Amino acid sequence: MRDRHETQRVSDQMNQHGEEILRAALLGDALGRPFNGLKEGHVAQSVGGAPEGFLDDPVLFPDKPERNMLPGVHSALGQRLLAATAMMGPDDAGREPVARACGLLAELKGGDEDEGFRWGALRGAGRPLRRALSRWAEEYPWEEADHRAKTEESEGIGAAPLGLVTVALGLEDAAGWALRLARCTHYREMAVMGAVAVADLTRLVLDSGGGKRIDSAKIMEKLRESLRLREDAYRKEHSRAWRDIGWSQPEARLSDALSPVASLLHEDNDDLAIKTIVNTATECRPATPVKHVQHGFAAASLPWAIYRALGPLSAVHALEDIQRRGGESSAVGAIVAGLMVARHGAECLPEEWRARLLAKSSAPWIDASAWQADEAAWTQREEAMRDPLREALRKAEARDIARGKADKKPTQKAGLPNQDEVPFAPPPHLWLKPGEEEDPDKKRILKEARGKRKIDWKEERKKKGNGREN
């Protein structure tokens, strides 16, 4: 447990620049959260154009209450960042710092059931964190090693923003601390090295003095060198354990996925950057195909976040672009916002945005219980916003049921559609009884008839459409 003098030292270091970086990460998380998991076209459809900062009307999906987020509230990612910030404070239980951060998250969960979108006061925890919380609840560990993920296969970007926290706290070997925090929920090299890369990059940006004319090529060269050393050490430490659980040593490295970023920053061509990053990530053999730069795979979303943070776009335009693209908008937004503030200072973010962020302090370890009470209150406010939507859905469902009973018609044979409602005959597998064998000639004649009726139906619809256009 840290004594009062060391705790004060961490507090002083954090006050220099750390609180601004942490608040920026929470802001980026909150901005991206409503669009997390959506496709780009769905984002545009839901907001009626391109997102601009926080939503004026938070109800994007009236028929899906849990998809609507309270503006200014961070997600479980932000809660994890704050819990990590709290790990350096005094702890009556005497837990190791990383174990304390995990314990604070478990306390937010409490004894509630996992509802997917919410677990106690936790808001929208991803699969790796939910699995980790279940494991912690079963084992009740107190030491840091007991919290480490042992078989987690996710290679996502969810742990990467933790690198901002360790630099913000002014910790020596911030990258090492970031790796330890990431290991609580992730085990795959690609995922944990994302946190290491963000910590190293944040420190490099701060040491460079920031500004518009940073030497991005030099920074990226140093980042890849330091990251390669960490990757080598991680492989050496865990290769035997990987073999024991049936994993082969990964062929792809995150440091390789970052290799094109420097030249892409020099070219300053978004279309080229998107194609290059997606193609490079695809070569890293992801579990699912990478279709866009904000895909959950760390080898895609982290290079893109770095490209945005070190590129020429303003923080406002960069973050709104991240909102527009959906996908991992919350994690990418947190990284970009944190790096932007490390580079340009807090003034690069609009005061209006900062004022709407509900989390005013990024040092909750001063009073962890007060922070947890705030988190519970924000979760309750969000649930209160969703309650009228749920009630409206219940009433609509009740009306539909009542109307269905009044207009109920005799049911047809199972699987056989009403021929008055479809313009062509159904295929035989819908009406042929089990065991019946259709005559080949009859089958051919019926097939030709169905095809002709279908063609005639399409032609008729086309004519009607042309008539409407005229």
Report the span from N to C terminus: 78 Å
Order of helices and strands: HHHHEEHHHHHHHHHHHHHHH
- Molecular shape: globular
Average pLDDT, rounded to a whole number, is: 86
Residue ranges: pLDDT <50 for 5 or more in a row?
1-11, 410-417
Q: How many strand segments?
A: 2
The biggest beta sheet reads: 2 strands, antiparallel
CATH-wise, what's the superfamily of the largest domain?
ADP-ribosylation/Crystallin J1
Total of helices: 19
Say what the CATH topology of the largest domain is. Answer: ADP-ribosylglycohydrolase fold
CATH architecture designation of the largest domain: Orthogonal Bundle
Q: How are the strands of the biggest sheet laid out side by side? A: 1-2
Structural class: mainly alpha
Beta-strand fraction estimate: under 5%
Q: What level of helicity do the residues show?
A: 55-70%
CATH class annotation of the largest domain: Mainly Alpha
Overall number of domains = 2
